[in-house]
Amino acid sequence: MEINGVKIDDTFAEAFPCWVSSALVTAVSRNWAQKISIEATGFATSCIGCAAEAGVDYYVPPDTTPDRRPGYSIMICNPSKKKLKEQVLERLAECVLTAPTAAVFNGIPTAEEKIPVKLHFFGDGYERQVKVGNRDCWAIPTMGGEFICEEEYGIVKGVAGGNFFIMSDNQMSALMGAEAAVEAIDGLPGAITSFPGGIVASGSKVGSSKYKFMGASTNEVYCPTIRGKIPSTKVPEGINAIFEIVIDGVSVESVNTAMREGIEAACGVPGVKIISAGNYGGKLGPYQIKLHDLFK
Amino acid sequence: MEINGVKIDDTFAEAFPCWVSSALVTAVSRNWAQKISIEATGFATSCIGCAAEAGVDYYVPPDTTPDRRPGYSIMICNPSKKKLKEQVLERLAECVLTAPTAAVFNGIPTAEEKIPVKLHFFGDGYERQVKVGNRDCWAIPTMGGEFICEEEYGIVKGVAGGNFFIMSDNQMSALMGAEAAVEAIDGLPGAITSFPGGIVASGSKVGSSKYKFMGASTNEVYCPTIRGKIPSTKVPEGINAIFEIVIDGVSVESVNTAMREGIEAACGVPGVKIISAGNYGGKLGPYQIKLHDLFK
Amino acid sequence: MEINGVKIDDTFAEAFPCWVSSALVTAVSRNWAQKISIEATGFATSCIGCAAEAGVDYYVPPDTTPDRRPGYSIMICNPSKKKLKEQVLERLAECVLTAPTAAVFNGIPTAEEKIPVKLHFFGDGYERQVKVGNRDCWAIPTMGGEFICEEEYGIVKGVAGGNFFIMSDNQMSALMGAEAAVEAIDGLPGAITSFPGGIVASGSKVGSSKYKFMGASTNEVYCPTIRGKIPSTKVPEGINAIFEIVIDGVSVESVNTAMREGIEAACGVPGVKIISAGNYGGKLGPYQIKLHDLFK
Amino acid sequence: MEINGVKIDDTFAEAFPCWVSSALVTAVSRNWAQKISIEATGFATSCIGCAAEAGVDYYVPPDTTPDRRPGYSIMICNPSKKKLKEQVLERLAECVLTAPTAAVFNGIPTAEEKIPVKLHFFGDGYERQVKVGNRDCWAIPTMGGEFICEEEYGIVKGVAGGNFFIMSDNQMSALMGAEAAVEAIDGLPGAITSFPGGIVASGSKVGSSKYKFMGASTNEVYCPTIRGKIPSTKVPEGINAIFEIVIDGVSVESVNTAMREGIEAACGVPGVKIISAGNYGGKLGPYQIKLHDLFK
Question: What is the DSSP letter of C200?
Fold first, then answer.
């Protein structure tokens, strides 16, 4: 199968269940809502080494937010519900409550399951309950004015680790292809790419052959610069760079859509040669997203 | 004392010793170096609730980086040397090693004390030693190409918690004054403002009167909206918003310079009325930075 | 009438017919499409002194552009059809044809009236006709590759000079109110704000009392700093800054929507006191947009 | 000659004398100073089709501007002193005077030659003379507050058309190489790259073989996609994309420095193969900048 002359491998991405929470961060300007959202979702690339996977999901214009101010929907994910609870609390407390003009609302009001995020204790008794739009909120006095927040955040059983590879003979082509993919995914509600700029340069395998104390190490079969030294290399002939897009989403459908739009965008970039995906032979993850099925 | 018609309170900022590390993150473009640096320093506003305080320090043009590519100097801080070590390792491993075209170098080569950051184990034996500029580095094969890094990072005993307050009758004036302060500090090597957009909206006191389980809570004496309810309020007459700039630096001099430049910039914004600072009566922190002394 | 405590004056904006063209600029990345669009619509604030009024209208994601790449819709306006033709040709030739990876398509394919923009002559005979999506295009060989363009651009009789004023006792509040208004208008297809950052600081009157050679001069009745010297001042008591949002749109409906969304957003910013609008007593412009009617 | 494995052609860039003016635009924030500067230098890629060549030169921090606010130095260029005068007047009047919180100062106070830019007439007699820093300025009442400006702007006999070519087998490599070059030049005072994003994709020759009414047309000898049809092609074997960086500067030294820094940066991008430059055999321009001499 080909798209725009780019070969789409007949393989699948293997993905995993993951708890996903969402919060809507608003502020006096779009610029401020964005700065706050970026801080709150920073240092959150992979649950292998970070306490969460997180990202800015999409812009929410003022006419659809509870307080009629511009906002961004952010997503925070963790396979463990307990750790997710801790992370949502800490990230909202440290990076949103502290920020100028910020407010934060439940991003999935329709979710059946909710986690408590009791920010109002920060008010030390001076906080008060208020209704904002149709939401039950707390108004906490701060030096800057008042901080407004909801205290229950919907969570859903979503999907982590949706992915695809972008391969080229040329590193800059692969990079621009990956950037195009991330841009296409950026605007899609319900899916994030948690790595820096949305792109993974150093895909890993579980464990390490040489350093037994390592939980993860470079996936040498996909490393172009050492292809000659790896008999079982999976780097196709002529490929010199491979970037991976890793997607977390609120549902399999969200991840599918993000993969499809991302792959199509990457295939529009000159020099991109092959699209593939990462899996463990289907042994680990319950979700197997076949690349070819995305375009049926 | 007044600057540009703005009253400078006769008070001091109380600051604390803190271990400070610095890393120089480079990439194929300035834009990528910046994205990576922002991710690596995210979720790091205050050591009260985050595992570190961190921020992007300043842009380093290609003609002065070891690999002649554009870079950003980032700063990661923690009062505990042990925790700092962990955080530098994790943030570089999760947010820089994973990023497309990234490399990372010791940001304080002249420091007497160094911490090890052994990223080369990720290479699983396929890594090799290389010289980049005059630096001893590792080249680790990745899917995207090669990741280049040093493995020793200089740390210095710096200063955390340098601060000043920007007060106005009008919230937007105080906010723009704070933004001007942050912009002025942005370009100064050796000092960062770790909060979202560099500004703190919710200054806190230690503990809580009402909720004994809280380690910190709103500093009600500086909250304008409840001034009428707080007999000991420190909110001056006519002030309706107070934003705080908190600065970490490699030295007292760096923090002093950042405070001076930041205060001057804030005083140029229409509507800013008073500059003050936060302290604990001099009981806790060994550094007392008098605002008036900054302008002698 | 009040919105969120902000007084809405019982007045109207007076607007004028204007020819409006639209082009869809695409590129290999969203970032490049945006840079090119900004250059192509620069130096185009007001037809009083510029050769056109122009602006970036809205982002068009790759799944809805003819070449499946990210794009921006830009708008170029002039009351004179002849001048509009010249400006569209020059701006596309100088700022889009010259730009890396750019392509440009007719932004209003449904328009009855079209203007020719014969860029293919640049190909000096080496150009060739191609079909992109369902569009008839030219592919012109360039040093960078190929430039793709359509050569007929739809124009419609739109509206120029839709406007409203944002007033505050404090300049920074008025500015942040104006920024919020521009952000709300930014995403609305069919309407642009052509001034720097979308905001006018120096509203003008026709001619000049003192300097007869001037075609326009400061509108002293709306200048807060000289209120005391102008017996006929229209600056309300307590107002110290007034910023104006000027809107051009493809239709009265587009301008109405932009005014409504912009005003609502401005009214959400702390310290904004009054919303008003500019008119010539209804003597000059055929369109009279009553502020109160926008919210019926 | 090679840099980092990239071949540097033994050729020269041919450049021309050009009048260069500079203005320092300040505003309440760096963000606003930048937005205004971009608008004021828009639609100004090449004097072939635009009324000027213009660009944002570099950021000026608040501690070195006359009004102690953040600013950007912008450059406006034209071979004709008369046209330059018109353009500086119009661009400052339409894009700076109109902008919120803007002020503008002479960017080359040391220049022997000055042009008048009489903005104060806009004040209609309500303007007043003020001293800002050590500059003689006018304060013009506006709706937003007061607009501050100098009225004499230094001009110097500078250089236009400094240039180099970045060639690769792969379009994305050439593009990223060109971006790296522009980033390196961005910070250098005294030199601008006036095209969109600083890069020219469609280098032209004088006149046209087929369409006699055209003043300029595609430079077919440098077009990779039609190499096979052009016996005299100058596209080297294996090259599929060529981007050009065109530089205007206040002096030959500024252009030399910009070319050197830009070329070095481009040579650091993977996949860039050859650096060359454009000339007319030395027949037209008095300046011949040899690439090899830049690195002696």
Answer: B
How far is CA D38 from each of CA A29, C92, C97, D60, D108, rounded to the nearest angstrom?
21, 18, 19, 15, 19
Q: How many residues does chain D have?
A: 296
Nearest CA in chain A to B100: A201
| DSSP string over chain A | -EETTEEE-S-EEEEEEEEEEEEEEE-SSHHHHHHHHHHHT-S-S-TTTSS-EEEEEEEE-GGGSTTSS-EEEEEEEESSHHHHHHHHHHHHHHHTTTSTT-EEEES-TT-SEEEE--GGGGGTT--EEEEETTEEEEEEEETTEEEEE-SEEEEEEEEEEEEEEEEESSHHHHHHHHHHHHHHHHTSTTEE--SGGG-BSS-EEES-SS-TT-SEEE-GGG-GGGGGG-TT----TT--EEEEEEEEESSHHHHHHHHHHHHHHHTTSTTEEEEE---STTSS-SEEEETGGGG-
Determine contact: C38 vs chain D, CB below 8 A.
yes
* Contact between D50 and C90 using a beta-carbon 8 Å cutoff: yes
The residue count of chain A comes to 296
List Cβ neighbours of A276 (8 Å cut-off, separation of 6 or more). Answer: A9, A11, A164, A165, A167, A291
Single-letter amino acid code for the residue at C13: A
Q: CB D233: neighbour CB atoms within 10 A?
A: 15
D187 and D269 Cβ atoms separated by less than 8 Å: no
The radius of gyration of chain D's CA atoms, rounded to the nearest angstrom, is 21
Name the residue of chain A whose CA is nearest to C185's CA: A61
- Chains near B with 3+ CB pairs less than 8 A apart are A, C, D
Token pair 């208020």 in the structure block, residue: A130
Residue of B25, B31, B32, B43 to mutate, testing the A interface (most A Cβ within 10 Å of its Cβ): B43
Asked if C239 contacts C72 with a C-beta cutoff of 8 angstroms, the reply is no
- For residue C105, the cross-strand partners are C24
Q: Measure the CA–CA gap between A91 and A93, rounded to whole angstroms.
A: 5
Contact D34, D56 (CB under 8 A): yes
Phi and psi for D107 in degrees, rounded to 5?
Answer: -85, -15
CB contact under 8 A, C226 and D93: no
Assess contact for A241 and A144: CB atoms under 8 A.
no
- C218 contacts D98? CB cut-off 8 A: no
Rg (CA), chain B: 21
- Chain A neighbors (3+ CB pairs < 8 Å): B, C, D
Q: State whether D69 and B184 contact (CB < 8 Å).
A: no
Give tens-digit pLDDT for D93-152. 999 999 999 999 999 999 999 999 999 999 999 999 999 999 999 999 999 999 999 999
Residue A232 near chain B (CB below 8 Å): no
Give residue A12's pLDDT band: very low, low, confident or very high (50, 70, 90). very high
Q: How many CB pairs under 8 A join A and C?
A: 70
Q: Say if B101 is an interface residue toward chain A (CB within 8 Å).
A: yes
Question: In 3D, which of A52, A98, A94, A102 has the Cα closest to residue A75?
Answer: A52
Residue A68: list chain C partners with CB under 8 A. 264-265, 268
Mean pLDDT score of chain A: 96
Distance from CA of D296 to the nearest CA of C (A): 29
Contact D109, C209 (CB under 8 A): no
Q: Provide the ipTM.
A: 0.95
**C58-80: per-residue pLDDT in tens?**
999 998 999 999 999 999 999 99
Q: If phi over 0 gives left and psi between -120 and 50 gives alpha, with beta otherwise, what is residue D107?
A: alpha
- Record: contact B100-A219, CB cut-off 8 A: no
Interstrand relation of B128-132 and B135-141 (parallel, antiparallel or unpaired): antiparallel
Chain D residues whose beta carbon lies within 8 Å of the beta carbon of residue B269: 28
> Residue D183 — φ and ψ, nearest 5°?
-60, -40
Chain A residues with CB under 8 Å of B36 CB are: 196-197
